[in-house]
Write a structure and sequence with these properties.
Blueprint lengths: L3 E3 L14 H11 L11 E6 L13 E6 L8 H9 L5 E7 L11 H10 L5 H15 L4 H15 L4 E8 L4 E5 L2
Parallel strand pairs: 2-3, 2-4, 4-5
Antiparallel strand pairs: 1-6, 5-6
The structure holds zinc ion.
The site of zinc ion has 7 residues, from loops.
Length: 179
């Protein structure tokens, strides 16, 4: 975890994010900055669907796309919409530790049994479903994945500022990442 940069003071914010909606996000969430509702979205936030985290942000501040592992590879049209129609110029990609998308294969049995038991699928369909999609959504390491996603998206949207961030479940704080 040596690549994480905590934000416990506004001076901790990296220069490239200072006075941007990414810096604002860090101030609202980590530093308890006073919040007033925004007129329109300032930022697109991509974050994991995991239930263990929520952000402290003002009303109307952000478009939010939640997916397993904060993986936006299959949400590109929605990203494009937030940029084109929504007019956002900043994206925060928020990974978190203990993510269920890491080492998905270890949950294969549970996934299949659960889909049969809870979802009403038959065994064969559930197995096929897992095998068809798990490799698309599995990530090896949260930190490396979010950094590589940020790099990929910077190439795709060269005029947009994109910050990979990490949410640590133990303290519910956002951390910057030294790239
Ligand atoms: Zn997750």
């Amino acid at each position: 975890m040596e690549r994480l940069i905590p934000v416990s003071d506004q001076f901790d914010i990296l220069s490239e994010y200072k006075n941007t909606p990414i810096g604002d996000l860090l101030c609202y969430h980590n530093l308890g900055k006073f919040m007033s509702p925004e007129e329109k979205a300032k930022i697109l936030i991509g974050m994991c669907m995991d239930n263990r985290k929520h952000l402290r942000i003002p009303d109307n501040f952000a478009f939010i796309i939640r997916t397993g592992g904060a993986n936006l590879r299959y949400s590109e049209f929605k990203v494009s919409y937030a940029i084109s129609v929504g007019g956002v110029k900043h994206i925060a990609l928020i990974a978190h530790n203990h993510c269920g998308m890491v080492n998905l294969n270890s949950n294969k049995k549970l996934f299949i049994e659960g889909l049969v038991e809870n979802g009403g699928w038959n065994q064969q369909e559930a197995l096929k479903h897992f095998e068809q999609y798990s490799s698309k959504f599995e990530i090896v390491n949260e930190l490396d994945f979010v950094v590589s996603e940020a790099k990929r998206m910077r190439k795709r949207y060269p005029k947009i500022t994109i910050a990979p961030l990490m949410y640590i479940l133990e303290d519910n704080k956002l951390y910057q990442i030294e790239e």
